């Protein structure tokens, strides 16, 4: 899935880079798993080539991250636990439900800040933040802070590595393998 996106982005005007960055960061919150982090690293390499500006890319990707988070938060606030436990949501299994409920009992808003750094759990955390009745305004602000930090890191790495952006993928895979079980 990553290859066609990268191929497309290499030959498009800067505004399409921003649209794709917004889209992939939005989608990753709704339909995990998604190659959005890898796409964001690649778009960072386009910053080093002068195709797109860093501030614009950061704003676009962060807006997508926050919009996706808000969508899942609202969905979570509209559905109750019975619906989730009915297994109608295929990508949220019972073990995830119990884990996230325990996390929210223990950590609350700290989870929202850590959300971007917890690979593979972004949609689940956003959904349960809404289900847990957290304050929407405070949650959006914390989600935006978290997304800004994470997206800055990914874009900077892509920009620093330039044409060698794919080397970062190995480290991101290792990071995911370590963080997800924790």
Which keywords apply here?
182 residues, mainly alpha, 10 helices, 0% strand, elongated
Query: Main β-sheet, in a few words?
Result: none
Series of secondary-structure elements, N-terminal to C-terminal = HHHHHHHHHH
Helical amount: over 70%
**Termini Cα gap:** 27 Å
**pLDDT < 50 runs, ≥5 residues:** none
Number of helices: 10
**What's the total count of β strands?**
0
The average pLDDT is 81
CA radius of gyration is 16 Å
Strand content: under 5%
Label the structural class: mainly alpha
Shape: elongated
Explain what the structure shows.
The chain is mainly alpha-helical. The chain is built from ten helices and no strands. The two termini are 27 Å apart.
Q: What is this entry, summarized?
A:
The protein has 182 residues and is mainly alpha-helical. Helices cover 75% and strands 0% of the residues.
Fold blueprint:
Blueprint: H1 2-9, H2 14-30, H3 36-48, H4 54-78, H5 81-85, H6 94-107, H7 109-114, H8 122-131, H9 136-161, H10 167-179
């Amino acid at each position: 899935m990553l290859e066609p996106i990268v191929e497309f982005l290499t030959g498009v005007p800067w505004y399409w880079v921003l649209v794709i960055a917004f889209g992939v960061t939005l989608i990753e919150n709704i339909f995990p798993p998604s190659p959005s982090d890898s796409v964001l690293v690649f778009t960072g390499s386009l910053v080093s080539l002068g195709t797109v500006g860093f501030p614009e890319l950061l704003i676009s990707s962060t807006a997508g991250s926050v919009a996706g988070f808000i969508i899942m938060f609202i969905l979570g606030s509209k559905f109750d636990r019975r619906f989730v436990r009915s297994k109608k949501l295929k990508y949220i299994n019972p073990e995830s439900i119990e884990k996230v409920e325990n996390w929210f009992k223990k950590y609350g808003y700290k989870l929202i800040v850590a959300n971007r750094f917890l690979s593979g759990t972004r949609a689940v955390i956003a959904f349960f933040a809404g289900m847990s009745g957290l304050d929407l305004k405070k949650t959006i602000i914390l989600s935006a802070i978290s997304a800004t930090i994470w997206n800055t890191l990914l874009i900077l790495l892509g920009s620093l590595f330039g044409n060698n952006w794919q080397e970062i993928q190995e480290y991101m895979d290792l990071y995911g393998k370590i963080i997800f079980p924790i």
